[in-house]
Automatic annotation (TrEMBL), chains A, B:
The keyword Zinc-finger does not apply. It comes from Algoriphagus halophilus. PROSITE patterns: HTH_MARR_2 (PS50995). Keywords: DNA-binding. Residues 1-150 form the HTH marR-type domain. One of its GO terms (molecular function) is DNA binding. This is DNA-binding transcriptional regulator, MarR family. SMART domains: HTH_MARR (SM00347). One of its GO terms (biological process) is response to stress.
Length: 150, 150
DNA sequence: ATTATATATATGTATAGACATATAATGTGA
DNA sequence: TCACATTATATGTCTATACATATATATAAT
């Protein structure tokens, strides 16, 4: 186990709260770097994968762009552009919403579902490998992260 | 306290390990968004702030670009370009290393130290506010994050 | 000394995040 | 109806991440 102090060669932190923020940023980078290696061969980014996951969760019910935005892991991201990229790859379909022409209905395609299914196996297996905690510890971590955000 | 399931409207996760990865990505976004509001008025990004912090930690001893890279929170980042941006703002100085002309010595300037000092007060205060945990909990979180990375 | 290899830094390019603004459609109140 | 605010989506721009590659210098091998 490499403590955060060693990992970034910083002797000490102002307090454990500031240390936790740095630790979280650093651990985030560790996870994302690990995940990127998985996504690379599939020509899709983690963020695009996440959008596909959201769409599949709808079970065939079309979703608007703003609804995707609300459910994204990063609220500051840009659902409109991600959907556009997925459309270019043929992984989603976009259609004008009939009752409100401002809205856009988004649906995952068969091709999207197939790619997602294949990717998901690897991502879920990878995530277990990346997290070097036992079951009690990972449950505790989830609890602390939920509480952290207030 | 908002559980991750509510926050991103996902009913359940494959297992607590996959939940933890998603929880970490989401909590990271929460922290970064909170921090950005602090940095905005100073015309500097969190990443540039982090480079300044690394440089100050050297106490006047010049640091090479690759040494900065090693100590960054995100190892995939680009120290060369961040240093260039800080130089344009007059916050760091770059000079060719005499004993190895491939290397570049980087030093924080007076202006950089002043900006860092002013920012640091706000960032450190902010970090305490953002992390809604008590002392025992935050210590436990640090322990779990260190262990998570293996 | 010459060639090959390794290292330090810089640069090119694509995607995403952060944030402001534009555009179009809808809803609301006078 | 008309003016005005609101909402949904798209777009523009800058910074950072991710990763490949270029360039210069240093080191090692022959």
């Amino acid at each position: 186990m490499v403590k955060i102090e060693e990992a970034i060669q910083q002797k000490e932190f102002k307090d454990p709260f500031n240390k936790a923020v740095v630790n979280l940023l650093y651990t985030h980078s560790y996870l994302v770097t690990s995940q990127n290696a998985l996504f690379k061969p599939y020509g899709i980014s983690p963020e695009q994968y996440n959008v596909l996951r959201i769409l599949r969760g709808q079970n065939g019910v079309p979703t608007t762009v703003s609804s995707i935005q609300d459910r994204m892991l990063n609220k500051m991201s840009n659902a409109s552009r991600l959907v556009e990229k997925l459309k270019v790859k043929g992984l989603v379909k976009r259609s004008e919403c009939p009752n409100d022409r401002r809205q856009v209905d988004v649906l995952i395609t068969e091709k999207g579902l197939e790619l997602l299914a294949e990717l998901q196996i690897r991502v879920e297996k990878g995530n277990i490998d990346f997290v070097h905690l036992n079951l009690d510890e990972v449950n505790k971590l989830n609890e602390l992260l939920d509480k952290l955000r207030g």
